[in-house]
Amino acid sequence: MALMITDECINCDVCEPECPNEAIYPGEEIYEIDPNKCTECVGHYDTPQCVEVCPVDCIPKDPEHVETEDMLMIKYKLLTGKE
After folding, report:
1. For a FRET experiment, which of 5, 10, 15, 46 has its CA 20 to 30 Å from that of 26?
2. pLDDT at 26
3. All structural domains of the chain with their residue ranges
């Protein structure tokens, strides 16, 4: 499933540059994640890089966008054009 950023976000700016899919962007109040671009770093890394660098642990899985690892890999291939 895609990840989401909760309102515990302190806008520290460390997650955005870590996202290989450019799914993280500044929202009106806090950073947000585009679920159509988030693959939880499947295809790029073993773990979600935004979660690794977040100092306040505010990036859980988004229950509104449930996806299997296979679905995330398909999304990764569509986003990157890789087979």
Report:
1. 46
2. 97
3. 16-80
